[in-house]
């Protein structure tokens, strides 16, 4: 894996990430395809959106259809027919979101399946073995995610546990690389560590020092944010966390967020993002535009012949009116989910592309101010 920084404007960064299934120009937003599928879309839609990478979920794909089945069917790329890159999360977030079905120990995470109640034990090694079966381009280590607010004792335990698991993961991963090389096998799976520490500067520093002292990870994620803390506190945490991470490696803010969150994080040196927000909100009737959000279910759009966003060039905006999308939503038509999801993802992908272009020109501050100015108009 190669990551080349092309330009830094303030703290905002533009780079190129080279993986086995194509280049990724950063900053980048990754559509969430939990089940190897972005809801309501297929691989042709994603290619039309020019999405270079999507996110799948290790926990969900392990349970259904099963990682061994995905391996037999050629890995995620052949299985889904999406020919570009996949990043897979490790299951740490599911331990947080499905806490009633989970028991966490220093050895790993015991899951009780939300599908059939069966029990499964995820260790740092097991999580990587699943992701090797999936043939992810970027694999996340197992981490211990804590909701906020949390006690200092619980956050410290999260850091220590995540560091322990990271060390086990990188040791196992490097052994697999050596074995593949000795066997003459191509090895294109890359591994990211996850920085934890809540919103505490001292804890974030401890976590960063732990992780960067280990054998080289391919990239570093910032986890444990957007889990209950105020937005301003999240931005403040990013402000002091990103400089703690290696400058020459990609930085990935996990599970964030709104367009404003993404712009603020780019301004603080983050390169990669994912969130269910654009597709989930689309399905619920919320549309993101250059001028803020609109609720397509509102009666005021019943006769509106305008596109969803006059500045958008996506398939939906080029062909359909707000009135038609309003009608489809009100009628419960499945076509609505596809058209709205295409637009919201196009908006997010355009947002990071526009940010990248501004960084390359040394005009990120102008982009930043224009972003907020449009929202006020």
From TrEMBL:
GO terms for molecular function: metal ion binding; tRNA-guanosine(34) queuine transglycosylase activity. Residues 255-261, 279-283 are annotated as: RNA binding. Substrate binds at residues 89-93, 143, 196, 224. Zn(2+) binds at residues 312, 314, 317, 343. Binds 1 zinc ion per subunit. InterPro entries: ArchSynthase1/Queuine_TRR, TGT, TGT-like_sf, tRNA_ribo_trans-like. Gene3D superfamilies: Queuine tRNA-ribosyltransferase-like. Its EC number is 2.4.2.29. GO terms for biological process: tRNA queuosine(34) biosynthetic process. Its cofactor is Zn(2+). The keyword Zinc applies. Pathway: tRNA modification; tRNA-queuosine biosynthesis. The active site is at residues 89, 274. Coiled coil: none annotated. Residues 11-375 form the tRNA-guanine(15) transglycosylase-like domain. It catalyses: 7-aminomethyl-7-carbaguanine + guanosine(34) in tRNA = 7-aminomethyl-7-carbaguanosine(34) in tRNA + guanine. One of its GO terms (cellular component) is cytosol. The keyword Metal-binding applies. Keywords: Glycosyltransferase, Metal-binding, Queuosine biosynthesis, Transferase, tRNA processing, Zinc. PANTHER family: QUEUINE TRNA-RIBOSYLTRANSFERASE (PTHR46499). HAMAP family: Q_tRNA_Tgt. NCBIfam families: Q_tRNA_tgt, tgt_general. Catalyzes the base-exchange of a guanine (G) residue with the queuine precursor 7-aminomethyl-7-deazaguanine (PreQ1) at position 34 (anticodon wobble position) in tRNAs with GU(N) anticodons (tRNA-Asp, -Asn, -His and -Tyr). Catalysis occurs through a double-displacement mechanism. The nucleophile active site attacks the C1' of nucleotide 34 to detach the guanine base from the RNA, forming a covalent enzyme-RNA intermediate. The proton acceptor active site deprotonates the incoming PreQ1, allowing a nucleophilic attack on the C1' of the ribose to form the product. This is Queuine tRNA-ribosyltransferase. It comes from Helicobacter canadensis MIT 98-5491.
């Amino acid at each position: 894996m190669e990551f080349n920084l092309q330009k830094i404007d303030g703290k905002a960064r533009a780079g190129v990430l080279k993986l086995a299934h194509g280049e990724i120009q950063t900053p980048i937003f990754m559509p969430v395809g939990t089940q190897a599928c972005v809801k309501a879309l297929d691989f042709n839609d994603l290619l039309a959106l020019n999405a270079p990478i999507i996110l799948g979920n290790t926990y969900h794909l392990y349970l259904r259809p099963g990682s061994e089945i995905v391996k037999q069917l050629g890995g995620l790329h052949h299985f889904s027919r999406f020919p570009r890159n996949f990043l897979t999360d490790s299951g740490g977030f599911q331990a947080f979101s499905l806490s009633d079905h989970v028991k966490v120990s220093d050895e790993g995470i015991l899951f009780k399946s939300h599908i059939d109640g069966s029990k499964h034990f995820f260790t740092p090694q097991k999580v990587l073995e699943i992701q090797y079966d999936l043939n992810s381009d970027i694999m996340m280590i197992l981490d211990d995610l804590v909701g906020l607010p949390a006690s200092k004792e619980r956050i410290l335990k999260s850091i220590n546990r995540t560091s322990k698991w990271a060390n086990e993961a990188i040791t196992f991963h490097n052994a697999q690389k050596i074995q593949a090389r000795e066997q003459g096998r191509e090895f294109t799976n890359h591994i990211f560590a996850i920085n934890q520490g809540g919103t505490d500067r001292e804890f974030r520093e401890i976590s960063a020092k732990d992780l960067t002292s280990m054998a080289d990870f391919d990239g570093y994620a910032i986890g444990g944010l957007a889990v209950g803390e105020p937005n301003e506190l999240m931005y403040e945490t990013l402000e002091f966390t990103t400089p703690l991470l290696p400058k020459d490696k990609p930085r990935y803010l996990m599970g964030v967020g709104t367009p404003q969150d993404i712009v603020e994080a780019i301004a603080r040196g983050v390169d990669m993002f994912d969130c269910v927000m654009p597709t989930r909100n689309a399905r619920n009737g919320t549309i993101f535009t250059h001028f803020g959000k609109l609720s397509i279910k509102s009666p005021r759009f019943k006769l509106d012949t305008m596109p969803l966003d006059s500045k958008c060039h996506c398939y939906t905006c080029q062909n359909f009116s707000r009135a038609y999308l309003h009608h489809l939503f009100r009628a419960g038509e499945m076509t609505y989910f596809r058209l709205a999801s295409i637009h919201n993802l196009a908006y997010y992908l355009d947002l990071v592309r526009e940010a990248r272009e501004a960084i390359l020109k040394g005009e990120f501050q102008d982009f930043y101010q224009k972003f907020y100015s449009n929202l006020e108009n």
